[in-house]
Design goal:
Blueprint (H helix, E strand, L loop, with lengths): L10 E6 L5 H10 L4 E4 L13 H9 L4 E4 L7 H8 L3 H13 L1 H14 L4 E5 L9 H12 L2 E4 L6 H6 L1
């Protein structure tokens, strides 16, 4: 088990963009001092303008936030289907099994290497972290590193305040 021995407290944040504008989303990340956004969507596509992989990467680069897509930490289709159907027990079972796969373990290792640098935040769609696989990813990283977790929510209207 990794044991973070740095003097500063390392925290891993998580965020979902459901119902958010890209300007409020980015302003929230800046306010929280996020330095690297780790996208844990298996398919980093969105019908919501600004949240697909390339557009999001470009927007984040413009405000000095690194973007990393870790497909290996995305929820496999059967897990997404179970979650959409409201079968959260099946969803959790599928995703937790995925995290134990070689691909899942490699993704956790890669995420940890970024997280221990500080200022990292996991991204997925769902506003509420308890309804999203990113909380399972975050808990596994915290278990292996003993860092603290903070689930942040997009602050609506914040983007307008910071653009004036």
């Amino acid at each position: 088990m990794l044991d973070i021995t740095r003097g500063d407290r390392i925290e891993l944040m998580t965020i979902g963009y459901e119902g958010a504008s890209i300007s409020d989303f980015i302003a929230t990340l800046k306010l929280a001092d996020v330095r690297t956004l780790i996208d844990v969507r298996e398919l980093p596509l969105s019908r919501k303008r600004g949240f697909s992989k390339n557009a999001l990467h470009t927007a984040l680069t413009g405000v000095a936030i690194n973007y990393l897509h870790l497909k290996s930490l995305g929820d496999p289709k059967p897990g997404r289907d179970a979650a959409r159907a409201g079968d959260m027990d099946t969803f959790r079972r599928i995703f937790e099994s995925h995290l134990q796969s070689r691909q899942g373990r490699d993704g956790i290792e890669e995420a940890i290497s970024v997280v221990i640098e500080g200022g990292a935040c996991l991204l997925c769609f769902e506003r509420c972290h308890t309804e999203c696989h990113r909380s399972i990813v975050a808990e596994e990283i915290a278990r292996q590193t003993r860092i603290s977790l903070r689930h942040i929510g997009v602050q609506h209207g914040l983007g307008k305040q910071h653009s004036s």
